[in-house]
Design brief:
Elements (H helix, E strand, L loop, with lengths): L1 E7 L5 E7 L7 E6 L7 H12 L2 E6 L15 H15 L7 H15 L3 E6 L1 H12 L5 E5 L7 H4 L8 E5 L7 H10 L4 E5 L15 H18 L2
Parallel strand pairs: 3-4, 3-5, 5-6, 7-8
Antiparallel strand pairs: 1-2, 2-4
Length: 229
C-alpha cells in the first residue's frame, strides 16, 4: 500500500520514511513513530491501517542517523540490537532525532493539506510525548506505553496539543506508580490503562492483547477524528 520516500531534516540529513496514502478522501495526516525495532512490517501495517481510515500516514526511520535500514523482529536478540540503536540515538546532540520527526510532520501537513496528529509505540511513545511538547505543526498526540515517559524529567514537560496516552497495568518497563504521577501532573491529558503487558498493540509480539489493542485503536481513531477535523 505504501512507498518509501526521503525526508530532508533541518540539518540537511536525508531520512527515509514509509508513506501510506488513503485511497479515498483525506481526513488528515498521522505520523507513526516506530518502536525500538525500526520501521518493520508491523509499523508499516500500522501506517497502512491509518491510511485505510482516511489519513495520510508517514513513519520516519528514527534510527537512520545511527544505522540505516533497521527492520527487526521481536526476539531477545532483536530487542538487544534495537535497544542499542535507541541508546545511540538518545545520545545524539540536540535536536537529534526530533528534527527528523519535525520533517515528517512538515511533509504530512504539506502533502495532505490537513491537520497532523502523531502516534508512537514503546520508544516511539516517548518520542511522541516529546513531539507534543516541543515540535511545531501538530494538532494531537497519542503515545502508547512510552518507555521513559513517566520519569520526572519527562513529566516536567508541558504538551502544546491535546494528548491521549495509553498505558498498561502489567508493564514491567513502566511501573504503575509512575503512571499515577503522570496522571496527577497532567490532568488535561486523557490517560487510559489497559489490563495488559507492554507492547499490547503489536500482533507480532507475545504480549499482544487483542481486546486492549482494539479498544485503544478505537479510542485513538475517535480522538484523531475530533482533533484533526
Amino acid at each position: 500500500m505504501g512507498q518509501t520516500i526521503q525526508l530532508s531534516a533541518a540539518d540537511g540529513q536525508q531520512i527515509p520514511a514509509y508513506v501510506a496514502q488513503p485511497t479515498g478522501p483525506v481526513k488528515g495526516a498521522v505520523v507513526v513513530v516506530q518502536e525500538i525495532f525500526g520501521v518493520n512490517s508491523h509499523i508499516c501495517q500500522v501506517a497502512d491501517g491509518y491510511a485505510v481510515e482516511g489519513y495520510l500516514a508517514i513513519a520516519p526511520a528514527t534510527f537512520h542517523r545511527v544505522h540505516s535500514g533497521v527492520a527487526l523482529g521481536y526476539t531477545e536478540a532483536d530487542m538487544g540490537e534495537g535497544f542499542g540503536y535507541k541508546t545511540a540515538v538518545e545520545a545524539l546532540p540536540a535536536p537529534g532525532v526530533m528534527q527528523d520527526i519535525q520533517a515528517a510532520i512538515d511533509y504530512a501537513a504539506q502533502t495532505s493539506g490537513h491537520k497532523v496528529g502523531i502516534v508512537g509505540y514503546c520508544w516511539g511513545g516517548l518520542l511522541t510525548w516529546r513531539a507534543a511538547c516541543t515540535l511545531k505543526g501538530l494538532s494531537a498526540a497519542a503515545p502508547y506505553y512510552g518507555g521513559g515517559m513517566t520519569t520526572e524529567a519527562e513529566i516536567a514537560r508541558q504538551p502544546q496539543v491535546p494528548v491521549m496516552a495509553h498505558f498498561s497495568n502489567q508493564d514491567k518497563y513502566i511501573p504503575m506508580p509512575t503512571v499515577e504521577a503522570f496522571v496527577q501532573a497532567h490532568p488535561a491529558v486523557q490517560v487510559f490503562v489497559y489490563d495488559a503487558h507492554h507492547g499490547f498493540n503489536c500482533d507480532q509480539r507475545g504480549s499482544w492483547d487483542a481486546p486492549s489493542a482494539a479498544l485503544a485503536r478505537e479510542r485513538s481513531l475517535a480522538f484523531f477524528a475530533q482533533t484533526l477535523a
